[in-house]
C-alpha cells in the first residue's frame, strides 16, 4: 500500500514537472503556404513555412527542421537528396511575432511523398516538437535514362575503334609487304 | 612555327597510324562502356544519383584522358633517346622549341581523342537529367587545363630523365600523388589546411569545379576560383616546358651532352 502510494506520488510529480516545462515554453504554431504540391521528377519546388509565437514572451533558441518521407512502403527516400539545407537555427521570434522560412526541394524520386516542418528547442528539453501540417507531394515520373539504349553505345564505340585499329594494322601490314616484295623484285 | 607543324604531323602519324594511340583509346572506351552500362542498367538510381554518375563518368574521363596525355609526353624525349632516334631528330633543321612544341601538341591529341569518345557517353547519361551540355562544357575546359599541365610536366620529366623507365615511373607517381587527396574522407578536408590542399592541387580543384556544376547545378561563374589552380598550373608548366625544352633537349639525360 505504501509502495503504491509512493509510485502514485512520483508519477504525479513527474507529470507536474512535464506540464511545467510545457507551460514555460512559448506557444508556437507552424503553418505552410500550401498542403499539396504536384511536380515532375528533376524539378525543384519551394515550400514556405511560417513559425508564429503566440505567447507574450519572445521565443528564443529554436530550430526548424524539414523532413521528407515516402508515403509508399516501396519507395526509399533519403531526405538529404531532397534538400541539402534542412535544419535552420532561428533568431529569436518576438512575442506575438512570426518568422517565414523558404525550403527549396529537388524532386529526386517519383511517387507520393510527405513533407513536414517541425520546430524544436535547442536546449534539448524533452518537449513535443511543434509540427506543421503535412504537405502531400506528388512527383510524376519521366524517363531520364534509356536503359535499353546503352548496349548499342557501350558496344558500338569500342567496336568502331577496334575496327579502325584492325583496318589500320592490315593496311600497314600490306603496305610493308608490298614494300618488301618490291624490294625483293628490285634485288633480283 | 612551321617546324613545330612538321614535328606535330610526324608525331600524330607515329601515335595514331602506328596504332598505339588507337589501342589506348580503345581501352579507354571499354572502361567508359563498363561504367555507362552499370549505371544505365541500374533502375534504382534516383535523379540526384544520375547526376552524380554523370559527374563520375566525366571525372574518370578527365583523369584517364590526362593520364594518357601525360604518359605520351613522358615518352616524348626520353623515348627517342632510348630508341636512339634522338640524335637524328636533333640533326634535323628544326629548332628545339619547335621540337618540344610539336611533341607537346602531339601528346595533347590523346586527351582530345579521349574527350571526343567521352562526349557520346556523357550525352547519353546526362541528357535525361538536363546536365549533358554543362557537363561537357566544364569537362573540356577543366580537362584541357589539366592535360596541358600534365603534358608539360611529362615533357619536363622526359627532357631530364636518363631513361624512359624513370620518366614513366615519375609521371605515374606524380599522378597518383595528385589524386591521393580525392580519397581523403570529407572530414579531413573540412579544415583550412584541407581546403587549401584541395584548392592548390590542380587535379582536386578541377574535379571539384566539375562536381559543383554537374551535381550541385551551380552556375559557371559561381565557383570560378576553383579554376585558378588548374589554369595557373597549365600556364606555368607549359611556359617552363617550352623555355627549358628550347635549351636543354640533349642527347644525354639530365641535361648532359
Explain what the structure shows:
The complex is a heterodimer of chains A (188) and B (257). With 188 residues, chain A is α+β, with helices and mostly antiparallel strands. Chain A folds into 2 domains: 116 residues, Immunoglobulins (Immunoglobulin-like); 31 residues. In chain A, 35% of the residues lie in helices and 32% in strands. Chain A has 3 helices and 9 strands; from the N terminus they run H-E-E-E-E-H-E-E-E-E-E-H. In chain A, the strands form 2 sheets. In chain A, strands 2, 4, 5, 7, 8 and 9 form a 6-stranded mixed beta sheet that branches. In chain A, a hairpin with an 8-residue loop joins strand 7 and strand 8. The longest helix of chain A has 38 residues. Chain A is elongated, with a radius of gyration of 34 Å. With 257 residues, chain B is mainly α. Chain B has one domain. Helix content of chain B is 76%, strand content 0%. The two termini of chain B are 26 Å apart. The mean pLDDT of chain B is 89. The chains are: A alpha+beta (188), B mainly alpha (257).
Annotated CATH topology of the largest domain in chain A: Immunoglobulin-like
The quaternary organization reads as: heterodimer
Q: How many domains in all of chain A? A: 2
Main β-sheet of chain B, in a few words?
Answer: none
Structural class of chain A: alpha+beta
Overall form of chain A:
elongated
Biggest interface and which pair forms it? A-B, 28 and 32 residues
CATH class of the largest domain in chain A: Mainly Beta
**How many whole angstroms does the radius of gyration of chain A measure?**
34 Å
Main sheet record of chain A: 6 strands, mixed
Mean pLDDT of chain A: 83
Judging by the overall fold, what is the CATH architecture of the largest domain in chain A? Sandwich
Order of helices and strands of chain A: HEEEEHEEEEEH
Features:
heterodimer, A: 188 residues, alpha+beta, Immunoglobulin-like, 3 helices, B: 257 residues, mainly alpha, 0% strand, globular
